[in-house]
Design brief:
The chain is mostly helical. The chain has helices spanning 3-33, 47-129. Belongs to the QWRF family.
């Protein structure tokens, strides 16, 4: 993996942590801002208190929406980068496979070359020693 790719993955982890924290805080704020009033049995409540609670919950939801929009754009950017990393990784795997095939072929050709050189040296030595019979004699 390239250093740039590692940096992108680290940034992704940071964004994911920020998102998880934002959602967790939003849930806590919404739970703290809502009234849990039974709606049966003639329950009553002060209209101003209910209004304040609903307004507070609405403020939290609006803040959460803004936070999610910000995180969403970052996630989309990271998604693009992760996709590019996956493409590069696939290409690297294909290149490594091709490299492996080429190396095996090169080794076989080197073995053949060494064998032919050895045979040639043996023929040359035999020729010089007069041990080589020529065709047609």
């Amino acid at each position: 993996m390239q250093p740039v790719q590692v940096a992108c993955l680290d940034e992704w982890a940071s964004i994911e942590t920020q998102h998880s924290n934002s959602v967790s805080f939003a849930i806590q704020d919404l739970q703290a801002s809502t009234l849990r009033v039974p709606i049966t049995g003639g329950a009553r409540g002060d209209i101003e208190v209910v209004k304040a609670a609903v307004c507070s919950a609405l403020d939290v939801m609006q803040a959460m929406g803004s936070s999610l929009c910000s995180v969403l754009s970052q996630v989309e950017g990271m998604n693009c980068l992760v996709s590019q990393i996956a493409d590069v990784t696939t290409k690297q795997r294909a290149m490594l496979d091709e490299y492996e095939t080429l190396m095996a072929s090169t080794v076989a050709m080197q073995e053949e070359e060494c064998s032919l050189r050895t045979h040639l040296l043996q023929l040359k030595q035999a020729w010089e020693d007069g041990e080589l019979l020529t065709f047609g004699n």
